[in-house]
Each structure stands twice: as C-alpha cells, then as structure tokens.
Here is the input.
Amino acid sequence: MNEDGLIRVMALNALSYCERLFYLEEVEGIEVANEAVYAGRALHETLEQTGEAKGQWRTIEFSDEELGLVGRTDCLCYRDGALIPYEHKRGRPRWEGGEAAAWPGDALQVSAYGMLLEREMGCPVPEGRIRYHKAGVTVRVPLDGEARRWVREAVERARRLRASLERPPVAEDERRCIKCSLAPVCLPEEERLAGDPEWLAVRLFPPEEERRTIYVMEPGARVSRWGETLCVKVPDGEASSFPVREVGAVVLHGYPQITTQALHLCIRRGVALHWLTPGGRYVTGLAGEVGDVQRRIRQYRALSDPGTCLRLARKL
Here is the structure.
C-alpha cells in the first residue's frame, strides 16, 4: 500500500490472482521473493539498460487520487498516433481459439495504467499492450468501457480488503498456490486441512533459506557497518566481514555492541536483529517489517478470549 493511501497498480494483478495474496502483500506488508520474482526483476533491469525501440519512455510514475491508484509503467510508446502503455512479462500468454490473449491480472494492470495515463496526459488511450517474452508475442488489450469498469471495481474491492482486519480465505483453485512465493507464509494447505480433515493436502515446501544467520557470542564484540557490509570485531581478534545481502539475521548473545549505522543498514535491508541474555533467554527483537497491524489485532483478540487461552495452555 502506498503511504498516501493510493493502491499500487501492480497490486491489482495480485488481487486478480488471489485476494489473500493481495492482503498479505499490500495490507500486512509481507513480501517473499522466489525464483520467478527474481527472474521478473532481471527482465525489467535488462529492459532498462537496453531498450527495444526508439521513442520510448520508461519507468514513468503516475498517480491519481480520484482513481485511487499509483503506478509506474514499464514503458510508453507512440503507436499509430496514440500513446500506448506497455507491460513486459517474462512468461507466456494464455491461448483462446489459437490466438494469444492476456491473463486477467495482466489485462487489469495495463488497463489501470492506461486510465492513469489518460488522466495525466489529457489524451485518450485506446489500448494497452503486453509483451510476453517467453512466447515472443505482444497482446493488445482494448481500454473499453468494460475494462474501465473492471479497474474501478478492483480498486473498490482493494479498498474494502485494506480496511478489513481479517485475511481473505485461501484461493478456491489450489493449483494457484503451488508456485506462489507467499505459500510458506499463507499456509494454504494447512488452512484447507483445518477446515476439512479429509482434504488431501499438497506438500508445499518453502525454499531453503540462502541467507545466513550471524551469531555474536563473544563478550565485548562489536558489529559495525562498512558500506553494504556488516563487520564483526571481537576483542584481540580479526574482524569478519559479511555482505548484508547474504545475511538474514543477526543474533546478539549477552552484551556485544552494534552501531547505529549497522542498525540502519539491517533494517533497510530486511535483516532481523535478536538480543538474548548470556544464558540464552530471548530479550527482544527488531525487524523492519511494516503493515502487520491487522495481524497484531487478531492476536490480541485471540489472547483476550479465555477459551482460546485455555486451549493453548492445554496444548503447552
């Protein structure tokens, strides 16, 4: 969710795919990147560096309070005398009657960009186009009355979800969960099994965590920052350096020191910090997560219920 309350256009794609995915990403602020996410980022970085045609504008951000949207187009091009928003997707289109067609979420996304572009430039936008790179085809999406109505309905639905304290149910089509990057957080199969003991659950394994956890246990040790690197210096010893992109968490046992600069770097790069007593008792933690207010409210409500507390106590 945007700080001004506007909804990101790219979030409409997630909303079309799965309302629970939209809620986790845009309301609770949970983001988990998988191989497909990184591949998509790499495609856009390549397009930024190379470009495919003359007369293109790239990564232009638009916003409009009346539409309630903010977004950044992949690129804008003049085609047949009109300004056309383009979206680049690494995958393949769907096929209808032997012809390529846009996926619903992609069509919704490029239509929203077209409406934003009209408001910003003051000129009609007849269509949007989506380039599917694996298939090497471009699909045209008319910006007609139906597309505009679809965008406005999606924005209204997104606003209602954003105001809700409860997560939407998991997707009815379990096949959508198999390649979803947020499956390890959403736990769709666990929820389906809880609602139906006869459910034949698919085992969705989260990918192995590639980032390391640094344990600082030496009394008098100091964690500092050097550029994009965390440096750990122990008394009478050499400093060890860890690129922050390879670090997932830092655990401080006892009373080692960590500089303010290192704290800022960890929070900015999503590195969790944990403090423990010398005996190993957990003291507190710090993470740069945002948007978990609804989750905390649900936890508070649950723990305010005597019946829930009794069930948890019995299990413990």
